[in-house]
From TrEMBL:
<protein>
    <submittedName>
        <fullName>Uncharacterized protein</fullName>
    </submittedName>
</protein>
């Protein structure tokens, strides 16, 4: 369907980049293989998670 505005596309891409940084362990205090701290970080940032 595509994006309706540049701002929506930009926010979506930022979300992808944050998730990749978390997955690769590039966030301070969140280890690369530490699933519990990754889930806690995502819940705190986005208000969603396991």
């Amino acid at each position: 369907m595509g994006f309706f505005s540049f701002a929506t596309a930009e926010r979506t891409l930022q979300g992808y980049e944050v998730m990749n940084m978390v997955r690769k362990g590039q966030i301070r205090g969140v280890g690369k293989g530490d699933i519990l701290s990754q889930a806690a970080f995502i819940t705190g940032m986005f208000g969603v998670g396991a």
